[in-house]
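User: Please predict the structure of the protein below. I'd like the answer in structure-token form so I can feed it into my own downstream comparison script.

Assistant: Understood. Taking the following sequence of 189 residues as input:
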Amino acid sequence: MKIIRPLIASFVLLTAVTGVVYPLVVTGVGKVAFSHQVNGSLIEKDGKVLGSTLIGQHFSDPKHFWGRPSGAGTFEYNGLASGGSNQGPTNPALKAAIEDRIKALHDADPENTAAIPVDLVTASGSGLDPEISPAAANYQLQRVAKARGLKTEQVRDLIAQHTQEPQLGLFGEARVNVLELNLALDQLH
């Protein structure tokens, strides 16, 4: 009993500190210092949540930029089903999916003969990417400008304004958040 009592006391104390106190402190600091991120990086307009800058959304209207395809199961961009398809490059289902995506892009903009950026036809590892490459945004530029009756320079400038450079100039690649870009487009009208 001499040994067990200090062990139980240590266990209870460490459980309280690491399981209750520490998480509450970290959550409190996060809420104060990084409230936007802690609350899901949500984009709101007139008190209504439009989406998150962290999770992609499905856009199929020619007036909007389309994001990277979702690999998140039956319900696209479902955070609960996050994950890639795990289909290898020789899988016929992956090949068929890519061909369908290429056809959809050509059907939406038959005049566009440019090479299609890979991020417009392949899903990411998470299946939830909210961003596309500047090349993917520029590939869609003519379709979006024509569908909205805008000058291509207006849309090109909007893409440039919403292009995020690599973090610290070193990490990652340049990217464009599709939801933010589409919301900026919607505000032009």
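That's the full token string. The first strand starts at residue 42 and ends at 45.
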